[in-house]
């Protein structure tokens, strides 16, 4: 069977599995379409409240019902580098809207937290659930029923998935996502990682570490490594929610501003009032999500999306599983080497041909659905381009380069970096888990070693500093799942485990927590489900048990006789300290409502 036929078969089973819930979602969407956005039926007081702060021109325009109104949902704040550029976007969008006879208003702001700031801190336990808060905030902004279309300004880890969940909840409203772009390149990510390891070994001090980090994260824009933030941008483009070529243009450039203005005008062109009505809930379908998963594997993208994409799809009545991710991974080769899968950053990726080059390679191989709807009004082939600035200050598009600008960063389908994608499902008597293998060398993909149990990443760090881990072992870090403590990322483990692996020890991580897009060279079985706090088998593992992780075969097992393992008591952990401080007490309801990681770990009722 050809890869195109295999992809078709996977897509068809998703469509069949999703049919009841997808039909219900589309019925509800049709009801909302019939009602439409009709400001003329709002009470005079309601409407007056809606445009009270507008200019006289915009008030006049909005008092009738013939001028389209564009809602802006923004994640702007000026502390976080990825979101700071959005400060100037509303003015650009409003100006562009007026040029085509429309109006634009900022409908709402959504919170944007940075996992980079909160790594290893208490605030990280709010991170995953901030996605659902963002979705709720989006819903509040759009609930005024003032908008014919919406543009979404978001970049980073939980922001884009939260905005997608909100947008698909209002599926009758056309949507265009507008990125801010990555910061310019600083020191290499490899150099940064080496300094982190030296610090963990006590060979350099805090001053040297801070200097290194500041040279890496040094200006406005997204972090340049290929983590969840940049995986988000890839997803938005390959799923047709960006305008073509928009993802990886640096902020503060004329091309970035031109793309923003063009995106605003495109959003106003696809409202119900025109001839190209493109409601986002119909535009994004099962094929769109399959394309997103293909892109995730072809680029070695973030493991966080094995949770987020499932949650996003659930809102639209589309049912995805980790098996879908793993099966797609088997037929999709790795075509990009961007840190942590290589030494390059996203700017190098973009310069070498970027998404336009990669999308064309995948389309030509039959590994993407070409006939999907996009916000651009054409199929996915229209995204095999490179955006440039024309002499008149507008965007012009050229075909993506025929040859990779750097075949160590972006390669062709017939010469992949590895024959399969970046993500695999692991199964066994511990439960289900996900592993990112694109950055793990083949010789490290099998580990069989005694378990060492930890109930926090701080416990492992203490053991490392005490030189208790100079041996082969599998670190089992549990009670890190959604219902336990909000499922934080465990990046504080990365330097220590990397050092031990470099010293020749066979090490691996098994956890019901997250590692995200920065999952690196150490094999890490993450998102173990069911989690320990919900009675999962990971809670039965004891110190010294032999654990076998085989990423090639897709297995994760504790080598204990089945009868003995099944009758062992479940471990308990005192999670009291995780329930308060840094706002965690306000998130108690989220922890109680959270679903399983393999079902999206969301707190809302799916379609």
Explain this structure to me?
Pathway: Carbohydrate metabolism; Entner-Doudoroff pathway. This is Phosphogluconate dehydratase. It comes from Limoniibacter endophyticus. It catalyses: 6-phospho-D-gluconate = 2-dehydro-3-deoxy-6-phospho-D-gluconate + H2O. With about 600 residues, the chain is an alpha/beta fold. The protein has two domains: about 325 residues, no CATH class; about 180 residues, Glucose Oxidase, domain 1 (3-Layer(bba) Sandwich). It contains 22 helices and 14 strands. It has an eight-stranded mixed beta sheet.
- Give average pLDDT, whole number: 93
Runs in which pLDDT lies below 50 for 5 or more consecutive residues are none
What is the overall shape? Answer: globular
The helix content, as a percent range, equals 25-40%
Largest sheet, in brief, is:
8 strands, mixed
Report the span from N to C terminus: 34 Å
Q: How are the strands of the largest sheet arranged?
A: 7-8-12-11-10-9-13-14
Please, how many helices? 22
Number of strands: 14
Radius of gyration equals 24 Å
What is the structural class?
Answer: alpha/beta
Q: In the residues, how many domains can be counted?
A: 2
Strand content: 5-15%
What are the defining features of this structure?
4Fe-4S; 22 helices; alpha/beta; 2 domains; single chain; 14 strands; 38% helix; 13% strand; Glucose Oxidase, domain 1
Write the layout of secondary structure elements.
Elements (H helix, E strand, L loop, with lengths): L2 H33 L8 H8 L4 H8 L5 E6 L14 H11 L3 E7 L5 H4 L8 H16 L6 E5 L5 H11 L5 E4 L10 H12 L5 H11 L11 H11 L15 H16 L10 H4 L2 H14 L5 H11 L6 H10 L14 H6 L2 H11 L20 E5 L5 E5 L23 E6 L2 E6 L9 E9 L2 H9 L7 E5 L4 H4 L8 H9 L4 E5 L12 E6 L16 E5 L4 E4 L3 H6 L20 H6 L14
Parallel strand pairs: 1-2, 1-3, 3-4, 9-10, 10-11, 11-12
Antiparallel strand pairs: 5-6, 7-8, 8-12, 9-13, 13-14
Helix pairs in contact: 1-15, 4-11, 6-7, 7-14, 8-9, 8-20, 10-13
